[in-house]
Amino acid sequence: MAKFRVKYFGSNDVPVQLIKPILDEIDAEMIIANPRSEAEVAEAGRDADGIIMHGSVPFTREIISQLKRTKVVCRTGVGVDRMDLAAAEEFGIKVCNAAGCNSIEVSEQAIGLLIAVSRKLVRMNQYVREGRWRRHTAELHAYRGPVSRIMGKTLGIVGLGHVGRQVAPRAQGLRLNVQAVDPYLDPKIAHEMNVKLVSFDDLVRNSDFISVHAPLTSQTRKMFGAAQFAAMKPTAYLINCARGGLVDTEALYDALVAGKIAGAALDVTDPEPLPADHKILTLPNVIVTCHTAANSNESYVDCQTHAAREVARVLSGKPPTTEVKDPWLLAEAQDQGFGGV
Fold first, then answer.
1. Per-residue confidence (pLDDT) for residue 213, from 0 to 100
2. Residues 266 and 142 both lie in one domain
3. Any idea of the CA torsion for 251, 227, 267, 13, to the nearest 10 degrees?
4. Of 124, 159, 192, 254, which is the most exposed, with the fewest CB atoms less than 10 Å away?
5. % of the chain surpassing 70 pLDDT
6. Which residue among the candidates 89, 108, 272, 278 is catalytic per the annotation?
7. Does residue 175 sit in the same domain as residue 308?
């Protein structure tokens, strides 16, 4: 009989070949489950010493109170907005995530979306497929609006955690000036990166591009709403590869229609998934992708193996390396920026 029992939740396609060898080292049995409802999660987790969560499986106080045996839960992603961190701490369960394991992928997508939305690449691709071929400046303006040079503009990064710190040098490689807001970051880190720390209001007013990399919490929910869009430059673009709830979708739609901002590129939305007939999808100055910024062959391996190693560490009596505590925005998480996204 194995010393530990580890449950893997949330996927029909489990990378057993990646996880099992890690758990074998601590004599842990790996059991695959696919619970959907809160009741199913609680039932499946009751006999688990550790849990690996893949996807958006809920982890509420009601569930946590029933996991008498569980010592650690680790997500194979970064966001923990569906996990009651306060309850987990109260019941002595370590909550971990895969912070940093997919930050390269998310930063690459953020920069890709910045280029795509500002250069109108998706719209131009669609025009070609529709048989509309336009090359000259006057004709292009009629079809896609003005296009400005990216070099020399200012990128504002909201949250200089794992992802934000990958975005900054990539943006600097495009010769963008980079500023950031992160009230819990050691200023020395920003200085070493040649990133100017500013207030949130100043970032909103002065950025030509804004890339959002904050966690979704009660403090950050709808941090971009009507007031922020009214304060942004009419030539500015919003890029969100973090969580859809950080942006007020209705206010964003209104701002785009009214020309208060130039465009938006969203890998995450609120609601999610976005209905196919949602009005924001009718706008030509919006790009929407399906919450895939973190995806790559490499990040999949890194996230899965990291989660297994975190569970193994805790069950072996060692401290986790990516523990997430409540609240995220405490100074003790200072070196991670806005909670470590």
1. 96
2. yes
3. -90
4. 192
5. 91
6. 272
7. no
Among 12-26, 127-141, 202-216, top mean pLDDT goes to 202-216
Residues 18, 55 within the same domain: yes
Q: Residue 318's domain spans which residues?
A: 4-101+296-336
- Per the model's pLDDT, the better-predicted residue between 163 and 136 turns out to be 163
- 243 is annotated as an active-site residue: yes
Q: Is the domain of 60 the same as that of 148?
A: no
Catalytic residue (one of 291, 306, 309, 313): 291
335 pLDDT more than 50: no
* 66 and 116 housed in the same domain: no
Give the DSSP per-residue string, 177-232: EEEEE-TTS-HHHHHHTT-EE--HHHHHHH-SEEEE-----TTTTT-BSHHHHHHS
Q: Do the Cβ atoms of 314 and 165 come closer than 8 Å?
A: no
Q: What pLDDT does 141 receive? A: 59
Residue 291 annotated in active site: yes
Which two tokens mark 252?
């964003």
Count of domains in the chain? 2
Q: If you average pLDDT over residues 112-125, what whole number do you get?
A: 94
Q: What is the CATH number of the domain that holds 25?
A: 3.40.50.720
* 69 belongs to the catalytic site: no
Global pTM value: 0.88
The answer to the question of residue 341 being in a domain is no
Instruction: Give the largest Cα separation in the chain, rounded.
Output: 75
Please determine, for residue 324, whether its predicted confidence score (pLDDT) is greater than 80: yes
Indicate which residue of 243, 306, 309, 313 is catalytic.
Answer: 243
Strand 209-212 relative to strand 154-158: parallel, antiparallel, unpaired?
A: parallel
| Higher per-residue confidence, 124 vs 105 | 105
